[in-house]
Amino acid sequence: MYGRKASQLVKELTGGEKGQLKAFNDDLINQVIKECGSHHVGLQALFRNMQEEGLDIQTTRNADFYGALIHHLSLTRNKRCLMAYMYNRADVVRSLRWKLGRVLPNELVTKLSNSEKEYFKGYSAALDAYMNEMNLDLTVCMIIVFARIWCHRRIRTSRLECLMILVKCCSLTGLPILRVTQCTFSNELMLNSIFVRV
Amino acid sequence: MSYYDVDAILTDAQKLPCTFGLDVPGLGYLDGNPGSTMKTGSKIDLPLWLGVMLAVSNSQSNEPLLTLEYPSALQQRVINAMKADPKSVDIRAQAPHFYALAFRVLEIFEDDDVVATLSETFRARAAEIADHAHNVRGGLAEGQTFLASLDELERSLYRAAHDGRKAVRAWETSLKKS
């Protein structure tokens, strides 16, 4: 009623620290899905009523129509809550790969659903394949990575331009430039890249 | 993006009073009496997502199905209290997602006076929030009451200010060490 269970589900995403997951609430999800089922049944029944009375579904605005409309709106609301629950959790699962690496600690794994575990594995595999192909470890120092990727697009850039790009990358990643101790330029297959030790 | 946004969803779950303009049989379950009719003129609280859609759905007949009113969080007495002293109004007690609720409601009822009052309130409270975030006074009673009266938007503002200050301090210490 009123999508209360669905709102409760979404509320589970708040509370607690950002980036923390609670246990996957299978139970509540099943209840919401059941509610959707009953709304659907109600919707069908009302439409059948309208058809039996010979009314045009597109244009009539009688009581049955409004009843059906409410069922429809409840269905879309429940759908939205379910999708948002999955989407936001998937966001956190992706960030776990970056924060904690390929293997997750056991207490965390118990909180994930089976599909989330599969998602984590798939995401991890895709990331590893990409890093292997680029020959680049993205999970290490972001400044080196960004500078290198950015410079990939330029050929024979001046030193000043490279430094400007570096400053821009630092502001993007939010890391302060503490100290630039060494700056070397190397040519790799007609591409310039900067390696900066921070 | 706001389809998946948790704050948008929770805002839409907040309620506002609606008056039915038609007799609708079979909708009694909204009022807690399944199987009965919803009579014209009966007033119930519906969540935003339902109320707003039903109110705008009626395009053809003369009688609107629903008429909406201001939720209790945005009644005249609250607006007056805000005009008098913005910092002492307990916004969280009115609605946890107060500003977001006001945003949605004012899309339907256009009311410049309320908009102006709310903008002023937000401005005044934001200054107070920044003050609290940067000078944390532990245990002071009025400080705690103010912080408990912040709604979700103001809370995220407070957290942003507080964390920003902490991060800068941490960075300064790391500079000194190296």
UniProtKB/TrEMBL annotation, chain B:
Tell me the keywords, alphabetical order.
DNA replication, Nucleus
Gene Ontology biological process terms from the UniProt entry: mitotic DNA replication initiation
One CC-aspect GO term: GINS complex
DNA replication complex GINS protein PSF3 N-terminal domain segment(s): 4-56
Q: Where does the UniProt annotation locate this protein?
A: Nucleus
Q: Which Pfam families match?
A: PSF3_N, Sld5
Q: Which CDD domains match?
A: GINS_A_psf3, GINS_B_Psf3
Record-stated family: Belongs to the GINS3/PSF3 family.
Name assigned to this protein: DNA replication complex GINS protein PSF3
The beginning of the lineage is: Eukaryota, Viridiplantae, Streptophyta, Embryophyta, Tracheophyta
